[in-house]
Amino acid sequence: MNKLYVMIAFFLASALVLAAAAALPLPQYAKIVLLAVALVLDVAGFSSRYYLYMFRPLLRLKKHVVLSSEDAYWISSTADSILHKSGDDIVATVYVLIPLYRSSTEMSDSERLEFSRQVSRLIGVSRDPVRFTTEMYVMNKDAYIQTLRDTISATENEQADLTFKNAPAAELERVKGKLAMLHNMLDSISKGMSFEMVSYASISATGSKEYEAISAAQQKARELMSGIGSVFGVSPSLITGENILKFIEPEALIPFSTMTEQISKGLEEQVV
Amino acid sequence: MDEEGIIYLIFSLVIIVLSFAILTSLHGIYTIIGLVLVVIALVFIIAMNWADFLLMPALTSVLGMTFQPARNYTITKGQNAIIKNVNGLFYATGYITANLFAYTFKEETAAEEDEVRLAAAPEMWERAVMSLGFPYKFHVLSCGMDVQKVRDEIEGRRSFQEFQLSRALQSGSNEVTVTDLQRRVNIEQAKMDRISQGEKPIATLMYTETTAVGITEKAATDALDAQIKQLQIALSSLDLQLSRIVGRELYTLFRYNFSMPNSFADIASAFDQQM
Q1: What total number of domains does chain B contain?
Q2: Which terminus of chain B is more solvent-facing, meaning fewer CB atoms within 10 Å of its CB: N or C?
């Protein structure tokens, strides 16, 4: 329902209650009650602009308000944009990677000035709303950590096997040494976090159908990419597939197994 | 405040004025009770108009209300963080304002000073963010504005200030007032000159987002609070306004992760208080 209609309905109801309080031959306390009702409706009408969704849960004193139980987005079949449902429309958002790998420490004063001007020009590159982002995220060491863990468990099996078979001491010593080395490697890799930094731009387009929204977003992205390319002299590219998640999902900022390894290590240290 | 906000405010204030008319038909203690009710409603409406980002989170905190903006996400009762539960790990995300400068137009500043600041900017930025040992995102949301509309607005403001200046000169106002008015006229003129030189008026919104992780919701939000404080300290050298975003603006920024606004009007109506 249109918010404006809701607001008008509340204000009309409030005005009617006030009119009733003024016109009807009611006792004083009844007029006060009607006045209070009219004022509550007035406040509700004003608050309905942003907080209409809260009225029903407030009346029912619900603790958890579900604004949406659907997924926030889904990846398009072309795998180069994410889609979000907004009312009857579909909004497609495209992510453009800006491959900039320069540091101010290796720039002269004039280069720094030029770089700042380039950034200023970049911001004005499109008439449509564009979001430019610099993101620092934790490097994903999941695959490496998993390989190490697998190797450790295989080596532990090997050690148990050798002990069971009464293998020579030298052989047992070798496996123990290997195991200690692998544990040390796992300790050192999960001790600290390594970070990566990336810059990207995101732009959206709306359409009544998925393909309509996607093609409009891609068109805008192409214009944006040519603008970015002309400002910095680099070749921006569309981010596709699972790489998009890095810019949307919080768990992609801090990979799961890297984090669990750190948390368990922290807990171990606390216990010790 | 945008046009829609003005409409809401006018309608609600009309009801308040009508309420005063009812008060005349009341007597004795009932008049006082009625007056108190009207004043409370008036104060509430004014507070909702200019500080709903303080009122609503306070209300939801007291009532312990949480919100689910999408599957797997929860907005905390204080409306200052969004939590995602992934396999028993909680990821809390929070936002702070970080407007580097009003990008629409630079004000009346000397060109040389501008150059010095621009040249120092990359190094200052790197120095500020180098010390941060947690993930964060710095966003610049930019949108081109209608050149003719901006030009008309500036011309209108300049004409009004010129009128004020001529009145101040005629009435023999003190030097401080006249200098201030002359400075304002110069600022508007500088903006007009920039447009005439082909510079595009751009509206920008800058904010920083950070995510913390914890094995419980509390651990995640505590870690997020600590990270936000660190961000505020690290970025304070850049001379920014760094306030934590709460309430409906937090929800809007969360939605921008999945769909960007269509126009400047959408941005302006969503961020009329904290940004």
Answers
A1: 3
A2: N
Residues B108, B241, single domain; the answer is yes
* Strand duo A130-138 + B136-144: pairing: antiparallel
Using the beta-carbon criterion (under 8 Å), do B65 and A131 form an inter-chain contact? no
Query: What does the alpha-carbon distance between residue B205 and residue B260 come to, in Å, rounded to a whole number?
Result: 12
Please name the residue that has the structure tokens 């050690």: A159
pLDDT tens track of chain B, all 275 residues? 777 888 899 999 999 998 888 888 888 888 899 899 999 999 999 998 888 888 899 999 998 999 999 988 999 999 999 999 988 889 999 999 887 654 434 444 545 566 777 788 888 888 888 888 889 999 999 888 888 888 898 899 989 989 998 998 888 878 888 888 888 888 888 888 878 877 778 888 889 999 999 889 999 999 999 999 999 998 888 777 888 999 888 999 999 988 888 888 788 777 766 66
Q: Is B46 on the interface with A (CB under 8 A)?
A: no
Put simply, the chain B residues between 195 and 254 with a CB less than 8 A from any chain A CB are 200, 202, 204, 211, 213, 215, 248
Distance from CA of B167 to the nearest CA of A (A): 39
CA dihedral in degrees (B161, B167, B173, B176; nearest 10)?
10
**The domain containing residue B180 runs over which residues?**
147-196
- Contact (CB<8Å) B260/A71: no
B97 in the same domain as B18: no
Beta strand A89-98 pairing with A81-86: antiparallel
Q: Which residues of B touch A256 (CB under 8 A)?
A: 86-87, 89
* Chain B residue whose CA is closest to A52: B248
Touching A: B residues 57-96, CB under 8 Å: 63-71, 73, 84, 86-87, 89, 91, 93
- Could you tell me the CA-to-CA distances from B219 to A19, A96, A206, B106 in Å, in that order? 54, 34, 38, 42
pTM of the model: 0.80
Question: Do the Cβ atoms of A210 and A79 come closer than 8 Å?
Answer: no
Residue B134 shares a structural domain with residue B270: yes
Contact B8 A31 (CB under 8 A): no
Token pair in block for residue A14:
């409030």
Domain regions of chain A by residue span: 3-60, 74-139+194-271, 142-191
